[in-house]
Amino acid sequence: MVTSAQPLSVGLLGLDRHGLFHLEQLSLRGDLVPVAVVADGHGRADLGEGFGCRVFEDRVEFLSDERIDLVLVTVTGNQRMAAIRQVLLAGRSVAVLSPLSEDPAEAEALLVAAEESAGRLLVLSPGLGDDDFQAAHDQVQSGRLGCPMTLKHITWGFAGAETTFGGLPEPFLVVLEQLLVLSEIGPSAVLARTLGGAGTSVGLGATVTMTSGVTADVEYHPSSPVPLRTGWVVAGSTGGYCGFEVYTATDDDEVYSTPVPVPPVDPGQTYDDLIAQWRDDAHHATVLQRAVRLAGLVHAVRRSLDLDAVVTLSG
Description:
By secondary structure, the chain is an alpha/beta fold. Helices cover 32% and strands 31% of the residues. The chain is built from eight helices and 17 strands. A nine-stranded mixed beta sheet has the order 16-15-14-13-7-12-11-10-17, covered by helices on one side. The protein has a six-stranded parallel beta sheet with strand order 3-2-1-4-5-6, sandwiched between helices. The protein has a two-stranded antiparallel sheet with strand order 8-9. A hairpin with a 5-residue loop joins strand 15 and strand 16. Helix 4 packs antiparallel against helix 8, helix 6 packs across helix 8 and helix 7 crosses helix 8. The protein is globular and about 70 Å long. The chain starts with 7 loop residues before the first strand and ends with a strand. The relative contact order is 0.15.
């Protein structure tokens, strides 16, 4: 776990079930200390008192509290973007959950607003804590697979009601962000499609081509009668990865597999990364670049679905 010599005092703007989860998690740490919540018309804000937080009824008064080093915005829906801008306009640092936006122009505008503010903008990505993704990423980073050439991720099954962002299911967006980390380069083209199946929920699929020529296929189907989860499948120039196994071809064209350790799932990893962004400017810049790329990818997927055609991106 990353530690900081000076704990950061955190104020939470929004205390729905997501906000309460983060309040509970932060209360277990020593480097990020929740000190305030704003009621913001939400009846559960008084729960913050049980965690030693001061409860504000007014956002302006909340944002004027000098004890707060960082505001974590968990507001969802149409009020989300306005809340982020309000915090930055007040000159306070703000952390927001990924995706930053569904519109690349809007994401870029937030970066500009952060540059003009006395505060800074940080992005949390809880979906990057997945053990299968971590294992795949470790193998790509080690060079054991050579240069990744083709990637695939499929999740089918009954998922029930799904939370969406920009009209796309959140689990689908998590995989798109994981893809950007695995490829370490921006997308150049997207072809998205709907997937039919049981129930009323519609599945989604996307073929993404990266600027390096790497291709990836992602499918997410929340109402499939067939349960199927591949996790990440990576075919590289010298090896492959799937299901916590690395596959290597010999000179005799035989393929053998080697198990890789299953990384532990650490709920605190998201907040470790938040501290890393606060302390490391280079890492912070990388996270913001990925956030803008993800916004562009989300936008391209939606456009491709609407147009039923390939949509190109600037990279």
